[in-house]
């Protein structure tokens, strides 16, 4: 007997179906023979990827089936009456060919969804639509153009759209089931209006739950204690309220990264609390990492970083960002995601701690800590296009002083990197450079092989005017520092003394002539004004004010005398040091006059 069929359908390489538009059978015994044949073949065939062709005959009725023993056999001879896409294939000229073969590489849901469609067709256009199958049926109806009615019944597309109208009555569990079905159909479902309706309903229920169980009002995500909107509640009640606001975290962990991205965007568009969103993203990342492969971890990390970058920076926990940073270093995430992560860290450097930045250097490098990472974060902190408040600058400067002291003993740290750490922040960020001096002293001790020129270049990072007298005295006697640096430190202290003496003399002259300013003002006035001011000046009692100023002046004069003694002592010490150093050099240099 010859084999005759109209359409052979390959669904995503999972199964092959034969569609005969002319043949339809309803004989139960014939179905029994097919079922028995399938069972027999399953017992005989060990390979699930071999295709068999069997013709069957009964009472003059003929039907031919190809089936791939990947999953199971389906009889699909009337699908063309419901599917516009299949029906159109029969209308096209075949050019003499008896059979048409169609291969679907992107059929929504694969062979399982094709079976679901076949059940609809063989049940005369009737199917029970539930949250479990609504989205697959909708995707099938759209993909197969099932928008025409048969025997006066609603077509599949109309039935799914009608069922979608009842989504507002769905429970949380039903919405979650529907969302899980959606993730199996990505990326086909990514642009679907129905998927967005499900997401909107899901986020709407979360928003409603947060209104009935208010979440904590957190002003800073790094605070040790959580501040809530109601201060009269007990601690246990506050904790309970917070956990009620995050009960849904575990339910959404099962979603893949693509769907989590869509959920997060929907939450943000609905003005959901960014603190809660960020906490969910961190929870999602930690939970999914337990069983994820390396590639899956990289995808999850990139998604979480991308979503965090779209949130308010103040709503993101700085400590958790550093946790993701340490994980991402071994995952080789994309450059753009790494830049976003470092940008977020840079914007919160004033909230970081020293331990956060003690990140080991990448594999293949010799230095101990990842200094390049810290430098990139520093530049990100300063390059936001907005003037950084001085308070934040000083906090970051204090942090960097600690970091520089930590990395200074590293023998592999290059002088250029050490100097970059010192000079990246502006000079106004530091009130004193004593910490930098001590770190530089340690660095020079470890790197004793540096040349004089390299040491001088390194000392350019010091601001001598912001060194305390004690540190200047130490620097002048420190053989690890170059001679020019010692001289420059003493000159800086000398200039400070001269400036202080000048201010003292100005104050003394002012006290000796308490009415001089009044006399200057009187000279510029008319005679009538002088006559009015003179009696007022004569009646002014300034004796008490003079006594205060004189006492203040005496204190300043005593301080000047002490500073002069320190200066002379430093001058003598410097002279001795310079003589010992200059004696070792062939060309003698004159010592600058340090004190007058």
List keywords for this structure.
single chain; 596 residues; mainly alpha; 3-stranded mixed sheet; two-stranded antiparallel ribbon; 5 strands; 56% helix; elongated; disordered C terminus
Strand arrangement, largest sheet?
Answer: 2-1-5
- Quote the average pLDDT: 75
Assign an overall shape: elongated
- Cα radius of gyration in angstroms: 41 Å
Per DSSP, the total helix count is 25
**Structural class of the helices, strands and pairings?**
mainly alpha
Order of H and E elements: EEHEEHEHHHHHHHHHHHHHHHHHHHHHHH
Sheet-strand content, in percent, reads 5-15%
Unreliable parts = 21-76, 215-232, 515-542, 586-596
Task: Give the termini separation.
Answer: 124 Å
What profile does the largest beta sheet have?
A: 3 strands, mixed
Helical proportion, percent range = 55-70%
Q: Give the total of beta strands.
A: 5
